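Quick one: sequence plus magnesium ion SMILES, need structure tokens.
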Amino acid sequence: MTSRTVTRRPVTRARITALMSRLAGDESHTAAATSTLDVLHVLYGRILRVTPTSIDDPDRDRFYLSKGHGPMAYYAVLAAHGFFPEEHLDTFGAFESVLGLHPDHLLVPGVEISSGSLGHGLPLAVGAAHALRIRDSSARVIVLVGDAELDEGSCAEAIEYAAAAKLENLTLVVVDNISSSYTVHGRIEQRLRANGWRADRVDGRDQRLLEEALARRVPGTPNAVVAQVEKKSAQVENKSEAA
Ligand SMILES: [Mg+2]
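Reply:
Sure thing.
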């Protein structure tokens, strides 16, 4: 797949938000859903070398949504790019729907891992990146986690190992909505750099900056992009008031 051109559908951000509006239920418009929107839009529109016709290609790029709660933007982006029929969106969360509140890789075309239990995606991505390198594949592995998810011990081990193993085919995207228990501004990228990663913080709503940072491959070290988005608290307060 390396030498082939990836043909993607032209998809606008407005198209994705329109598709998101078809997702019904209490979970449809949470902060978790919209915080990832621009990152996912850039990844599937400009970065990932994977299309609906190459989801089984051993050399496809892998995207792992580790932060599996709030998958609405993810589903909308996949539908917009043709991985599954848009009509599936109307069934979101229903008993017999393939689109559950957490993505299921056995049910949803294009979904690489089932996720929702936090702290698993990064270790899985590290293993996949290692395996792809052993196979001499040019594929990249890009994993998206939340900022609070990095409090999980499994992430600490994966961060250390990825740098030690020089996994330059691995990219970690941290969507930072300032929701971790002990937030210290800048700590995420400093922690990654201290472990040997290339890590930069960018505006998580600036698609040009996101594309530039996500396209980067750094020789000899994994790459991390901390995407800063709006603070989570407002939406959480609204949700509790409604409950
Ligand atoms: Mg968060």
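The chain has one domain: 13-242. The CA atoms of residues 66 and 121 lie 4 Å apart.
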